Amino acid sequence: xxxxxxxxxxxxxxxxxxxxxxxxxxxxxxxxxxxxxxxxxxxxxxxxxxxxxxxxxxxxxxxxxxxxxxxxxxxxxxxxxxxxxxxxxxxxxxxxxxxxxxxxxxxxxxxxxxxxxxxxxxxxxxxxxxxxxxxxxxxxxxxxxxxxxxxxxxxxxxxxxxxxxxxxxxxxxxxxxxxxxxxxxxxxxxxxxxxxxxxxxxxxxxxxxxxxxxxxxxxxxxxxxxxxxxxxxxxxxxxxxxxxxxxxxxxxxxxxxxxxxxxxxxxxxxxxxxxxxxxxxxxxxxxxxxxxxxxxxxxxxxxxxxxxxxxxxxxxxxxxxxxxxxxxxxxxxxxxxxxxxxxxxxxxxxxxxxxxxxxxxxxxxxxx
Length: 368
Prior knowledge:
It is built from 11 helices and 15 strands. It has helices spanning 36-48, 120-123, 126-140, 142-164, 175-215, 234-240, 242-248, 269-272, 275-294, 316-326, 345-350, and strands spanning 3-11, 14-20, 25-29, 67-74, 78-85, 88-94, 97-98, 111-114, 221-226, 259-264, 267-268, 304-308, 334-338, 355-361, 364-367. A hairpin with a 2-residue loop joins strand 10 (259-264) and strand 11 (267-268). Helix 5 (175-215) crosses helix 6 (234-240), helix 5 (175-215) crosses helix 9 (275-294) and helix 5 (175-215) packs across helix 10 (316-326).
């Protein structure tokens, strides 16, 4: 998918902008805090119906205004637009037709974003790593997204029941009500679990390929999907642990407890990896995601790639290898930000005829 034009009105610190893009390389240069990331976030918004950084839509509107608008024109004359207004439900539109459900839009415009925020995948809890798996799979499987949405609704319902009956005598607890919810949880959990297993098996070779290319094949890395469902029947486990869950006040069994273990050699990445190794690991996960989605058995189209300030904490050799990698034919349209144009010299040299560069200052965007 290629984004040809982007129009922004009152989105964060960008008052107004109309941009026409190269189908390969688009670079935004400027100091920190000037609005470079906000441009990428607007592009991200058009793919995922939300900001990558701020889940509260009204906080993405310029502080002096009551509304914001983002509109993108993609190849094939596909126009996606979003209107955000304070105190009103946002409007998300494909062509001239509003979406009844925002979920129906996910996967139409595949996109991968690499940003400093990705460090959360390593330093934060397992929830971030589950979000990574869910985010990739949901772009190519609407069935998975439906199961995940329903599972989360049911999980909230069970947790609410656990709190409601926490101090209730065992003989008066409505066992049948718990059983109905638990049976539905299992019905949605199993397809999620099976798809996660399949995804990791297929994704790891792409991840390792990219890590090897960036690191110069100096280190061995691994990703392993860990789930309670590897070894136990979920319905039985929910029944067996119900009494304990009533004490805890939350559901201790299920795919919401899954983990994605990251290893450098034989050890956890979080414990032994340097900043550069952790950054390389994260880049390999995200760039590997782009290659995986491009596979003809998955989406069979190259996702838009957003690279936000990716060169920080990397030595010059790894920076050069990343540049050589992303300018290759394996990757499609690229949007990249950096504080120093010097880093982009090799990119521009490789794609000078297919590259555009803008300078961003105080929300103003000027082509160079």
